[in-house]
Every structure is written in structure tokens, then in C-alpha cells.
Amino acid sequence: MDNFVRVYSGGELVKGPSGVEFGDLSEEGIWFKAAPTYGELIDAVYEKLGLDPATHSLRAQGRTNVGGGAHRHFIMVPIGDDMSWSNYVKAVFNGTDWNCLEVYVQTEKRASTSTEVVSSEHELMDSEPPDAQHQNAPPPDPAQSASLFTPSMVNAYAPTVHSMRARLRKPRTNTRTYAGKGSAEVQFGQYQCGASEPVDTTTYTLIGLYDMDHRARALASGKNLTELNPRNREPLRFDKRYECYLRPAGLMGLVNISKAGLPSIDRALVSALVDRWRPETHTFHMPCGELTITLQDVSMILGLPIAGRAVTLNQTECYSESYQRYLGKAPPLDKARHGLKVAWIRAQFNNCPDDTDEETVKKHARAYILSLVGGLLFPDASGDRYNAYPFPLIADLENIGSYSWGSATLAYLYRAMCDACRRQSEQGNLTGCLLLLQLWSWERFPIGRPDMVKLKYPNVDELEDERDRPTVGLRWVVGVCTYRSAPARCYEHFTNEFDLLTDDQVVWSPYREERVEKLQLAPICTQDSHLWLTQAPLVFFFMVEVYTPERVMRQFGLHQECPPPFRDTSVELHWYDVSAKYYHLLHWPCTIVFYSRKL
């Protein structure tokens, strides 16, 4: 009912078990003939409270529920103009079960009638403490890019919905031009000896090349976007005879999740996450700070190895010859497209005969690992093929475990999100390890997360090998979960929820020591912990991605430097791509070792 507003005044808000509560505040109900505009609301509040706009100013905030189902969590959203009022109304009525407009107003007597009226939006911004420090701040090197928020993002210091005019206003700072392709004007504050004054990061422009087509900018301009189309493939049928090859490869964690039943990818959730991904920093920009998927998440959720050689090679044998040599047969020749057809692989290798020899088992094991790696970790956008780039590395079963599959998975996902965040068409695809992306989101955010009713893990005492122990990600597929009914316009609903995400809703450190001990995880989940804070690049064949854990130190339970150190993720690296047709002509070194460098 958008023509009825409850107005609360005459006191202070209180913190309750479900977030913000009104306590003993005075309540007034205001009816309108139709959904009111912001101006009509303020005029009605003045009249209802018996106040004169010439002698009193109003500061308004709306209460909304950002929880889900029976788990309600109320926060306050400042309202200062038509845009912030419209956003608040949409957040309340877009699929939530708390469809009531509740506005809290604070009144303040003007110093004199001649004093210029200051909008409540600017009052709220000016009320922030001058020494406020936040995880999101402009980079110390002004020659690079500066802003770390899109215009559609919420103010970094508080869950405030600002007008477009306020978000794009020019700060009182110097200006330089970003030197490089897709040049864009960059504004930055003054830095001396590493110190900086608090700066609203939303006033800083982003690299024009990325921001021009970014989904977040399109949403801010009022464009209706559709969900991205997730791409992943189901692996082949598992056979217990493959375990002797999977354990040394460090892939049992992923195998156990696959065997238990892969969760369906939530298109709306992953699309809403990608909307907040920034290629400049390789992080998600939330109202409460930056977060990202780290090597720690890859280890804990999927149990993939981090230490090892980079996933790349100098290919000397064509793929068709490799297929014939290691699979015993080659697919029909297709020069136009790279990869192995899912239908062909399933027809040839989905069932390993019971009474077959060891060599045949090896061939089926290679096909299974290819379907696991090429279908879940590195899926491409084709929709009907397994990514075959890793096949030469998989073919050597004895040395699969010598590669850093975890860092390669993260590199591929980073590149996929950097590409997808600029796709606005209805046919836009999202590749990368979406299983990792979704489970990572469930571990940290309440948005779109199923309710864990009962944790159900296998009895580790009955396992033959400790490497078969579970990973953190397994709990979401073997545990008893209840899935909340999808709200109407699910994608828009999740987008609004992320716009209103608060600090206390985020699980910043889900891998606490006491929890890890209780779960009795596989050793591979923590064996490479010394590499979680490395600054080495992430490599997957022709993809080289910058890894920036220094921007999200809070996720590791460490102190976050503000502003965080800025390292360029390189526009040129994001541009670099190569077709499968010419990839074999490249000469990549295959002796790169993933190493650790202290921060």
C-alpha cells in the first residue's frame, strides 16, 4: 500500500534483535490519494506535526527489511530527494514481506529565517565524523584510476541512497587525466607521506573504458537489465576407480561436492553480484566495504591446491593428436570451435566398463577429470562443450597435482566477471567457476542464502584417506537446507538488497579456527595458507590477473589499511585475449611456480 505512510518522531531510534526499532516514538499515519512524491511527503509531514518550513528543517529516514523469510533485519535509509524516496519505496515493495512505508523524522529549529535551507541529504553527509576511515577510499596513485564506486553504489560511509546529482558532483580536489587507452578524467585528493583526508569515494570517477559499459552505470541511468546467463557443465559419472588419480591431483574436495549433488546456480544472485564487481580493483564494492573471492576461499570451499606450477604450457602437440593418444579416440574435427562436445564425451566416456583393463580406466579417468575441470572450474560460453585448454596437463595423470589449480580457477573467474560486468544484452553470458561464486556468497551474505537447518557431514572416522575429508563448500550440498520462495522480480530484489547491505550483515571471517576444527576439514583446505596473502599474479594459460588481498584484509581477520594500497589491474591485461585457433602459436613458459611474497 504505497499511499499510506507511518511517520515516527519525537525521540531516538533503538537497536533491537532484528535491527532498528522505533521504541516509544510518537506514531502518525498519513493517507494520500495516490503514491506521494518526496515533496508531497515532506509537506504532509510538516502539516501533520504542525511545523512551519520557514522555522524548522526535517531530516527523514525510511526503515526497510533487508532480511529474508522469517529472518527480519531492519535498517534505516536516509531520504533526501525524489530519487532516494523512489529507491526506498522500491526496496520496500519489491518482493519483501514487510510492505509498509515507515519514515522516521528528526526536526531541527533553524538558526534564523534568513538562513539558506540545506537539504537533508547534505546534512546527513556533513554529519559524518571528520576522522572517519573506511575500507573504500581512492588509490594513493592519482595517475592510475581513482574512484572505487560506480554511480549506482551507495555511499561508502553509511547506507545512504544519494541522488545522482550528489553522487556525481565534483569534489574540491585536483584533476588529472588517466594516461592510456580509453582515457577518462580522474579526480583525486592530496596525499602526503601516505596520509589522506577522509574522502567520499563516490565522488571519484572510474576508468572510462570500464565504466562506460558497466552494468551498474546502466542501472543507475534507469535501464532495465536482465539476468546474465550462467554457463557451467555437469561432469561425467564418477567411478571409484578414479580416486587413485584424483587424490594426488588435489581434486577430491570438488569431486565430493559434485557427487553429493551440485546446487542450481541462482542466476539472479550471481548477476546482482557481478553488477558490483569492479575490474579496477578485482573486488565487489558494497555499501559497507570491499570484498572479494580470495585464495583462502578457493582452498576452504573447494579444497583446490594453491601451491604449484602455473596452469599454462608450451603446447607442441596439436589437440587432436593428444586426444587420440590419451583418450584412445578423437572427436570429429571442428576447426571453427575449440573444445570437446559434451554429447560426444558423454557418449564415449560416461560409463567405465566393469571388466576393463587399467589403461582403459586411465582414459576414462582423463575424460572425467576434463569434464570436472573444463565443466566446473573453467567453463566457456559455448554451452555445449567442455573447455579443452587444460587437457594436455590432465593427460599426464601422475603430474596433475603439480599445478596450482586453485589460483587458475580464481584467475578464470576474475576474468569472467571483468567481462560480464560490461555485458548489457539479454544474451549476456557469465562463465567462470559459478559454484565457487555462489557458495562464497552464501558463506558471507544473507541475500539469496538458503537456511541451514541441520549440518550433516560424513563421519570422518570411517574414511579410508584423510584427503577425502569434507571442505567448507560440502556443507551446503549435504546439509539439510530450506530454500526461501523466490520473490517477484528476483534480480531486482537482490539488487536492492545489496544496495542496502550493512556491515553487521556480512560474515567477514567465516573460517574461524574454532569452526574449522569442528568441521574436521581435509588437510588441503589449510595446507597452502602461507600463500593466501601472496601478491603473485594469477595465471590460466593466456589469462594473467592481478591478485589484491591487501584491499580485503578484514576477510583474513587483519587490520585494513585505509585507504588500501592501490595496484593497477592493468587495462592492457584485460584486453588481451587469443582465439583457440592461434593459441598453439604462443610460447608460454611452463616452469612458473606460484610463490609467496610478504605484504
Question: Can I get a quick summary?
Answer:
By secondary structure, the protein is of the alpha+beta class. It is built from 21 helices and 22 strands. Strand 5 and strand 6 form a beta hairpin.
Primary descriptors:
599 residues; alpha+beta; five-stranded mixed β-sheet; three-stranded antiparallel β-sheet; 21 helices; 22 strands
Structure description:
By secondary structure, this protein is an alpha+beta fold. The chain has 21 helices and 22 strands. It has a five-stranded mixed sheet. A three-stranded antiparallel sheet has the order 11-12-13, with no helix packed on it. The longest helix has 20 residues, at 358-377. The chain is elongated and about 90 Å long. 44% of the residues are buried.
Number of helices: 21
Low-confidence stretches: 113-205, 578-599
Summarize the amount of helix as a percent range: 25-40%
- Beta strands, count: 22
Q: Please state the oligomeric state of the protein chains shown.
A: single chain
Our Rg estimate from Cα atoms comes to 26 Å
Beta-strand percent range: 5-15%
Average pLDDT for all residues:
77
Q: Span from first to last CA? A: 53 Å
Helix and strand content put the structural class at alpha+beta
